[in-house]
Amino acid sequence: MNNRSTSGSIFVAVMGIAALVFGILEFVGGEWGPLTVEAGTFTAWRAVILICAGLIYLSSVSNFLDIRQLGKSVVASIMIWIVAAMDIWAMITASIPSGAEEAGEPWFASGTEFLAAYGPPYMPAMCLLLPSLVILYFVGRRRRTAS
Fold first, then answer.
1. Which 3 state secondary structure label does DSSP give 36?
2. CB atoms within 10 A of CB 21
3. For a surface tag, which of 55, 64, 106, 114 has the fewest beta carbons within 10 Å of its beta carbon?
4. E-assigned strands of the chain?
């Protein structure tokens, strides 16, 4: 069976470079257009995970449809999914309280405050979430060609 896939190799190369760059941006901190990095307890860990995911993606560029290389790409995608899910969960939980409990106002945020919390800027892993789902196409393609 032919284990080469030019489109798959290009995909994991681009995802690897993007994950590496976003991981480095996590270490640097700050805000760049629609991206932000909030200092917190797990900022360094998010950066390490994104850098490792980028390196794993880049290590699976050659012979992409081989099961081992594809497996490495799936692991890198799962790492991104976990970090992005943590960021999404943090965004959801931060949007519920109003922050004005001491002033005697309601504990829950109003509708406009709640929706405003979901606007930009976004964490880098959230920007990688949707493109990383493309790996599911390659898994399905591998499954179809294997049978």
1. strand
2. 14
3. 106
4. 30-32, 35-37
- Euclidean distance between CA atoms 143 and 11, whole angstroms: 18
CB 19 within 8 A of CB 51: yes
Query: In the predicted model, is pLDDT for residue 25 greater than 90?
Result: no
Half-sphere exposure of 83 (CA within 13 A, CB side): 32
pLDDT for 52 equals 95
Q: Is the pLDDT of residue 147 over 70?
A: no
**The token pair that represents 15 in the structure block:** 């995802």
Q: What does the CA dihedral 101, 35, 28, 114 come to, rounded to 10 degrees?
A: 10
Give the integer Cα–Cα distance in Å for 107 and 26: 32
Tokens for 30, please give them. Answer: 């700050």
DSSP 114-145: HHHTTSSPB-HHHHHHHHHTTHHHHHHHHHHH
The answer to whether the beta carbons of residues 127 and 35 sit under 8 Å apart is yes
Digit-coded pLDDT (tens) for 96-121: 776 665 666 666 667 777 777 777 77
Read off the pTM: 0.81
Averaged confidence pLDDT in the chain: 82
Place of tokens 């390659």: 138
